[in-house]
Design a protein that fits this description.
The complex is a heterodimer of chains A (about 475) and B (about 120).
Chain A: H1 2-24, E1 34-35, E2 38-39, H2 47-78, H3 84-119, E3 128-132, H4 144-153, H5 155-165, H6 181-204, H7 215-253, H8 257-289, E4 303-304, E5 308-309, E6 318-320, E7 327-329, H9 334-362, E8 366-370, E9 373-378, E10 380-386, E11 390-396, E12 404-411, E13 415-422, E14 425-433, E15 439-444, E16 448-451, H10 456-471
Parallel strand pairs in A: 14-16
Antiparallel strand pairs in A: 1-2, 4-5, 6-7, 8-9, 9-10, 11-15, 12-13, 13-14, 15-16
Chain B: E1 2-6, H1 13-27, H2 39-46, H3 50-62, E2 66-69, E3 73-76, H4 88-103, H5 108-119
Antiparallel strand pairs in B: 2-3
Classes of the chains: A alpha+beta (about 475), B mainly alpha (about 120).
């Protein structure tokens, strides 16, 4: 399990850093329209400026190269790591750090290019934009049904999973039915398909770039770019549909963590193949039109660090990225500010969850009998079971004999807490540290509990105490 | 036809749009009957309010350069009324330009050559 997780993280991180490296640190800067987010101008290719730009590009590219090599080596070493919760924390932190570090030479390069531009006395053209009247609002490449068909078909597996969970379809034949876990997961991924369809429209309606005085060149360039975006979203929507179908079949035929991980890994590979194809096509389009680019608006000063577009006077929400491919939001736009705020919140949320998981993992789980109740405690009291309510208790030798499917709560490789389907019985309350061995099953008038403590000795001891208390 | 918008210019954006469309019609870059982008599309491309573009189109319509209808949007007029005279406001503007050029030492021939070039 941890090797699979490591491999998924590895195949997510390593190609991403390589793609990012080749995109934002190009070798032949003279042929690119941007150098570290600054508009490439004829003046940069003249006299001593050429040597200066050369030096900036080489220096920052080699720094980024070292970061990429270090990232790949560390990612390889992390594959040797075992222990899921710690792996999750380390990998997530490492991915954040690696991607941020890779941007640093770009940011420094952006500052140096802006300083060079200033020292050359190149006039700022901030606030100037060009519009091609022939192609304004007229260049589109998306055929809506191509992206909406897979997005809407994705609803079929979700509805089927819901019918299974409601036990209308295949009653009593699907283990885990009734937990609504698969329905929820499929529903979330179906929403991803819908978002892809919406984003396909947003990118298809994105502002057309004016790269030439020739309107036909502008129209062809923008059409090619928008077709590339449309193809990527269509591919993503079909990939999502296949994943939904695969998960539904897994749910019906052979539900296990392993099959879910394998299908997720195949899906991630599929998505990466799609992104790689998109990036290659993007580069091909740019290199095809590089010689035709004789007109580019200079809005360098609106790009903070060459990464964030901030222009409150621009009413557009989405603009083309300067670093990498795709789009980004105008953080000067009111909706852009909201999106930026939500992204920061999401980032803080991920960091807080990692800290929370770390605390949960490192805090011992205890069971004690106090004031006529069995108390399951870890950080706070998770369950308080009155001894008078207990109808029966039984002792289990090994938690591995339990088939646990989480409905809600915490479900790491070593800690399972919350509401679970246990051996086909839905709605069970679980407080288990997997791997500590034994467990106690408590049945009350209203609930069934599966609990244990951090050590087998403590669990066995508590079992004896409850048994004695019930006999009295 | 490419239009250049400078949001920091003293000339209002709707007037920049209007002026460049008029220059496009005069130079032939915008042919008679040619379709113009919709108000919404042009506003989105420039990143400005639709009201600004609407104001420019309204002005062009009033001046007789374009025609608009709900079905076909805005088009360059096939028959633009030839008044055969320069409006007073333009005469004043031309006078200002000639005066400034004269003060800064520009030769009359140079101005005439420029007029010839623009006329073509």
């Amino acid at each position: 399990m941890s090797l699979f997780f490591g491999l998924i993280m590895f195949i997510c991180l390593v190609p991403s850093t390589l793609i990012l490296f080749f995109l934002i640190y190009p070798k032949n800067w003279k042929e690119k329209k941007l150098i570290f987010g600054v508009k490439n101008r004829d003046e940069f290719r003249e006299g001593t400026s050429e040597n200066e730009v050369d030096a900036i590009v080489k220096k920052r590219r080699s720094q980024a190269g070292i970061i990429v090599i270090c990232t790949c080596v560390i990612a390889g070493l992390l594959l040797l790591m075992r222990g899921m919760p710690m792996q999750t924390t380390v990998w997530t932190a490492f991915i954040f750090i690696a991607l941020i570090l890779l941007e640093i030479p770009y940011i420094l390069g952006n500052r140096e290019m802006k300083a060079l531009k200033k020292s050359l006395g190149l006039g700022r053209e901030t606030g100037v934009s060009y519009v091609d009247l022939s192609s304004a609002g007229a260049v589109h490449a998306l055929q809506p049904f191509r992206v909406w068909l897979p997005a809407l078909l994705g609803l079929v597996p979700v509805v089927l999973a819901l019918l299974i969970d409601l036990k209308i379809l295949f009653p009593g034949m699907v283990p885990g039915a009734g937990s609504f876990l698969v329905t929820t997961t499929l529903g979330v991924f179906w929403l991803v398909s819908i978002m892809m369809a919406v984003f396909a429209h947003i990118f298809d309606n994105m502002k057309n770039e004016v790269i030439s005085h020739d309107s036909s060149i502008n129209a062809n360039y923008n059409r090619a770019k928008k077709k590339n975006f449309a193809d990527m979203f269509v591919l993503g929507a079909w990939g999502n549909l296949l994943l939904l179908a695969a998960w539904l079949l897994t749910f019906i035929l052979a539900y296990s963590d392993l099959t879910i991980i394998i299908s997720s890994a195949v899906y991630i590979l599929f998505i990466f193949a799609g992104i790689a194809s998109f990036v290659i096509k993007s580069k091909k389009i740019d290199s095809r039109y590089e010689k035709e680019m004789d007109l580019l608006a200079d809005d360098d000063d609106h790009w903070i660090l060459g990464l964030l577009y901030y222009n409150p006077k621009d009413r557009r929400l989405n603009v083309e990225k300067r670093a990498g491919v795709g789009g980004t939001v105008n953080v000067g736009h009111p909706a852009g500010k909201v999106i930026l705020g939500l992204s920061i919140l999401a980032l803080v949320g991920v960091i807080m969850s990692l800290v929370w998981i770390g605390m949960i993992e490192s805090t011992p789980m205890t069971i004690k009998i106090e004031n006529g109740s069995v108390i399951c405690h870890q950080i706070s009291d998770d369950y308080v079971i009155a001894l008078d309510d207990i109808r029966s208790i039984s002792y289990g030798e090994d938690t591995d004999e339990l088939n646990l499917i989480r409905t809600h709560g915490i479900g790491t490789a070593t800690i399972q807490k919350g509401s679970f389907t246990v051996n086909g019985e839905t709605g069970c309350k679980v407080f288990l540290r997997i791997g500590s061995g034994n467990y106690i099953k408590i049945v009350t008038d209203s609930d069934t509990y599966y609990i244990n403590a951090s050590t087998a000795e403590e669990t066995a001891d508590v079992y004896k105490q409850i048994d004695q208390a019930l006999r009295l | 036809m490419i239009i250049r918008i400078d949001e920091l210019s003293d000339v209002p954006i709707y007037m920049q749009i209007r002026n460049q469309i008029v220059m496009g019609i005069s130079s032939g870059e915008l042919a008679a009957g040619e379709q113009l982008p919709t108000v919404r599309a042009l506003a989105m491309e420039i990143g400005i309010n639709t009201m600004t573009v609407s104001k420019a189109y309204q002005l062009l319509k009033t001046e007789g350069y374009i025609m608009t209808d709900r079905k076909n949007g805005a088009r360059v007029r096939t028959q633009i009324q030839k008044k055969g005279s320069i409006p007073e406001s333009n005469k004043t503007e031309l006078r200002r330009i000639v005066s400034e050029a004269r003060i800064s030492g520009v030769e009359k021939a140079e101005i005439i050559a420029l007029v010839d070039e623009y006329w073509r």
